[in-house]
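Quick illustration, no need to memorize.
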Amino acid sequence: MRLLLANVCGAKAKNPLVVMCATNHALDAFLEGVLEFESSIVRVGGRSSCEALADKNLRELSKAWREMDERAAEGSLLGAQHVRGRRALYGRLKTLEETITKLAKEAHALSKGASLQDLEQWLREGSDEDDFDPLGVTEEHLRSLCSRPCKDVLGTWLESDAPEKLLAKPPDIRSTKKVEPVKATTEEEEPDPDAVDTKAAMADEADDGPKKREAVFLDIGMAPFVSGGNRKARRRGKRGPNQPASVGEDVWSWPLLQRRQAWAAWGAAIHRRRINELRSCAARAERTRREMERLDRDVDAEVLRAAKVVGLTTTSVAKRRDLLRLIGAEVLICEEAAEVLEAHVLATVSATTKHVVLIGDHEQLRPGTAVYKLATDYNLDVSLFERLVKNGVQSTMLETQRRMKPNISRFVKEIYPNLRDHPSTRDRPAIRGLQKDVFFLSHQNAEDQGSASKQNPAEAKLVTAFCRYLVRGPPRYGQDKITVLATYVAQVGSLRRKLQSDGLGDVRVASVDNFQGEENDIILLSLVRNDGRPDGANHKKATIGFLSTSNRVCVALTRARNGLFIFGNAGLLSARSKLWKAALEDLRGRGGLGGGLPLVPRFRDGDEAVRYVSSARDVEAVLEDVGEVVPPPAPVEE
């Protein structure tokens, strides 16, 4: 990285180097390392947990840039145009949002029927010719209604104290039967208005054409208003050749059924207009919002162009692809490339990209896919990194490791035959309070078969008790120095709850998959899978799931720096996996495998006596014997 930066600076390149990682933790770790020799860094995304990168976040830097633009606007400098444009767009957007809220409320109220005020406002706004087209009524009819001096004009005209109750649920146009046209009637022959579904007139909010509208009005018995009629004659307030004689200028003389049908149709027309206005305002608001995002993206691009290193996760790559295209990066570095889908890497490559550096380990976890079948049947979980390596593209493998003690790195010598240990890994202190730094505790506590995600309650209790011994017993390790890993999510939840109930909530608990790329001084590994059979028994019917996958085994066994303690069934693993068999045979030869974990609880007094524990009760007995440091209760807030 230092060499790439030196080359970029030497060439006086204007564009930054882009660093992409699969996880936020890996990105933080990578950029924190770069900070040691380069401070011109911008991190995209707000999920960083690294304090050293707090002032390197794109959001904060862009905010400061905009504040600078605000100050520059007074002097008509470079930022003034951006400030004025954004202010104008923000004001427009605020006005549109207020209008949208107002129209939405009006549309909701109109769905319950039009009031007299709604009808009068409709007249003031000016009605469209098409509003009346299917009704056979004119604007003069509506004026005739509104001109009658009366305390409750609408209620009197509809002969109802609660007009909204006249609206029934609209029928399904696709399933309703054809209704015979309603003949003009006198008041003596008037049918029961409660039997008429007048709200069907509002079913056509989208205005899908005259045929559909006509079907709606036919279904509610509005044939007199739908039939023919000369449009010019209707605009003049005259009756068309096919228009029923009962529709006169005076709406107060109409039969009650036709009044209510006309009122429902007027309400539907007003409601349709409000809906159309609402859609139009929403479209304008969306265009305005996109324009504001474009201006903000321009500011973000300026901030990124000013940096030498830009870091982001694969998720941010998908969300900010347009932004990456604007900065025109020429060099792309992908950390954990073996865990990144090929599509995510290709999404970062643009027309300006000249150099792609992939860093990863194809022997560890592969990328995850949302659809499992895509991985098993179509190899979508094969990363670009792995595909290139396996197809013979030139690559370089690091052969010296600086993380693990040599007695831990021996686990993976079969996977990495040329792996060498750096001298700094050989002189580390032993784990306090234990006879061995690496140990596999083999037990016959069977896994729980009742859940989809596997768990082993007895093993969880044992791991929790051992963690208590490391923290509160003679070893006195800090909770941040210990990480508990489990191979199944259900076991992770069980361990987390047990540790929290024991006051060990600061101990990190994670699944093996989620701990890829991370490390800690001491790792407690819960393998979960256990058929309850002892070593030497027939394990042919038992399975170990993805514990047989070399990629996961490699990750699980390479997370510890100084101490690794594994809990599982050695006989089952040896019978079902060649990789585990080789590792366990090597461990057995070193005295690191057995049915009892060798504790040295009195080592502080110089007593090297070993006590073997195989259950949570055994560990608790040791703590009772040597004493347990119980933290004081948390202060009670008054």
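The chain is about 40% helix and 10% strand.
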